[in-house]
Amino acid sequence: MSVALDARLGQPWKKPPFVKSPALRWTLIIGSILYLILALNSIEVNWARVYRGLDRGWQFFVAFTNPDFTSRANDIRLGLTESAVMTLASTVVGIGVSIPIGLGAARNISVLPVYLTCRAIIAVSRALNEIVVAILLVAIFGFGPMAGFLTLSFATIGFLSKLLAEEIEDMDKVQAEAVRATGGTWLQRYVFGIHPQVVPRLIGLSMYRLDINFRESAVLGIVGAGGIGATLNTAFDRYEFDTAAAILLVIIGAVMVLEYLSGIIRAKVQ
Amino acid sequence: MLRLEKLTKVYKTGDKALNAVDLEVPQGQVLALIGPSGAGKSTLIRCINRLVEPTSGSVLLDGSELTRLGAGGLRKERRRMGMIFQEYALVERLTVMENVLSGRLGYVGFWRSLFRKFPQSDVDEAFRLLDRVGLLKMADKRADELSGGQRQRVGICRALIQNPALLLVDEPTASLDPKTSRQIMRLITELCAERKLAAIVNIHDVALAQMFVSRVVGLEKGVVVFDGAPDDLTPEVLTRIYGEEDWAETVQPVDEDEEAAG
Amino acid sequence: MAVSTKNGQKVWQRRDRNSQLKIWAMWLIGTAIFMWSWTQISAATTWSFFWDAPRIAADIGGRAVPPRWAYIEKLWEPLWDTLNIATLGTILALIMAVPVAFLAARNTTPSALFVRPIALFIIVSTRSINSLIWALLLVKILGPGIFAGLVAIAIRSIGFCAKLLYEAIEEIDEKQVEAVRATGARPWQVMVYGIVPQIMPAFAGIAVFRWDINLRESTVLGLVGAGGIGLQLQGSLNTLAWPQVSLILIVILVAVLVSEWVSAKVRGAII
Prior knowledge:
The structure holds three protein chains of three kinds. By secondary structure, chain A is mainly α. Chain A contains eleven helices and no strands. In chain A, about 40% of the residues are buried. Chain B is globular. In chain B, α7 links the parallel β7 and β8 (about 200). By secondary structure, chain B is of the alpha/beta class. In chain B, the strands form two sheets. Chain B has a six-stranded mixed beta sheet with strand order 6-7-8-3-9-10, sandwiched between helices. By secondary structure, chain C is mainly alpha-helical. Chain C has two domains: about 1-55; about 70-270, Orthogonal Bundle (MetI-like fold), CATH 1.10.3720.10. Chain C has ten helices and two strands; from the N terminus they run ββαααααααααα. Chain C has a two-stranded antiparallel ribbon with strand order 1-2. Chains in contact: A-B, A-C, B-C. The interface between A and C is large, with 56 and 54 residues.
């Protein structure tokens, strides 16, 4: 029996703590508890109001089991078409604009001024919430799907360009070098060296973004930027929960179908 | 002590992994199970503690029929069968000590185990075992920081702290280099001798098996085709188990000097 | 790739004729759909407004600069509320997402036939609906205020977190779980010792990732009356107080950048 063992026998054992320094550990623990207390206290829950609301919640739940697709079928159809149209057009335009910006934002193939400009565009697009952009664009372009279309296009640019740029930066540089060694022009280099590696990934990401754009298009109507969100907002305002439930089910169904399709397409190209 | 009667396992795909295997292992005996890949060695071991559910036949451990037990009874009996795995199967993100103590889970209540409040006797036993395999200093290291041989030692401690009557050992050396393989095999056989444990050791390295065990069972396509002393493993027997090959080299007695130097 | 013979010479083409035709057909259909979409949008647009846009944008821009810095006094409290909506909403979501994820993962679900579809439905339905819509609904049910926003964020995040978490659960190393089970551990102990340590890094990553997204989303919940800084934004927009709007947008932008920085730091520390 070794000395080290003797020293440890009979001693309790504790799992070594995740944060090694005790001072930091206790600061974190006490800080989190303090924050939780403060945060929970700052939330005022009007239980009487909640209690009254439960009845409405129940109505809404019942509405889900008995959704009303018919009485506003026309509005739903128009809203859904508008959402679909906005989604498709903005995804296509978004991809079109994303490709040059993505190329420009890839450090390994771009020059510094172009790189910085493209990165700045991406940063702004990613930082601004779609709804905020939509509000501003509605103020500028007026109500309707044009504002929604522009919003989604702008959001798509930030999303796709960034991932595309990262993809290009990560890709095998040797392959691009090989094409350069054969003496190709810039365009040839792109078409033969970068394009074949990045395209499957780009198609996958675009399908994913199509999916996101549809979901977003469903809310843009709340701020007046077109799509099924406007129909939904109206239904809620009139307390027509059965119609609202129908619209929500339509949205869920559409998202599921889109997700399924995009899954198939992504599996095919990769 | 352990008796298998007509143990049969047919997988859903229709593959018959075990075909009416009868086997008896007395207390304290270390038995090597050899055979080609796919012979059913791994399935046999897993059918004993029912990690794989046998299709028919029975497993008797000290008279209690494991194949008839419900979930609770099976858990109680599993405590008496320590298992050592091919790729160590330590929980990588837990510390060495937690991995060893997890061998006591069958004896400790849920809340105690959740808060790592194991009884002092378990903690002491864990320290003793770690000291025995030379890893006491590593007690608070995370399992994924250890080398292969060290991980397998922790795996051995986890099995032994269960205070088992039987060790089920599945290819303990398959992921280790030759020197470490011998060390691990020696450790397992020594510990079995110290504690009078029976053990079934799946092993594909025939020479290594011959070096350490007293009994060898050959399995081929789910059927026992050899059962005897290691010295009886003649080239003819190996051909029956593994198929035609030049076996002269394999069955040569191992050079013990080289082994001692290694 | 195809090689055909033309005038006795071998000609190399990237694709054979049929697949080439298919690709052209797809392009044609795609272009047609896009053009149709565009005409729809175009028909719903008042083009005189559209061409007027640069002037209006310049006008709004002119009014919005400089931002009314003094207004920041009134923004601290809504900002604090926004932070709370995001943080508490994420915590609440995680509490609910963990059981859903375990019920949805193929290797831990108690019943693949009955329980798993229900769990998957919860995931899909909460994920498909944007938090703003949840807020819209909850404001009607619970009344306007932070509480509705918090619950909206929580519900929206269940599906997102549970989906990522159950994918992580399905990817765990089963051998480690088997080893714990072999010791005679109870199912709950197998979960705590065999599964939980393996998914901890994924869990932490998901929590921080979702918190970052939730902070962005909770900045706009006020637009439908669910508390936070969005309320001030709505109020300022309604009164056309553009200098206040520009200040709020700056504050939101800074908050988002800070949250992104924090989440990157925390993720770096965990993984």
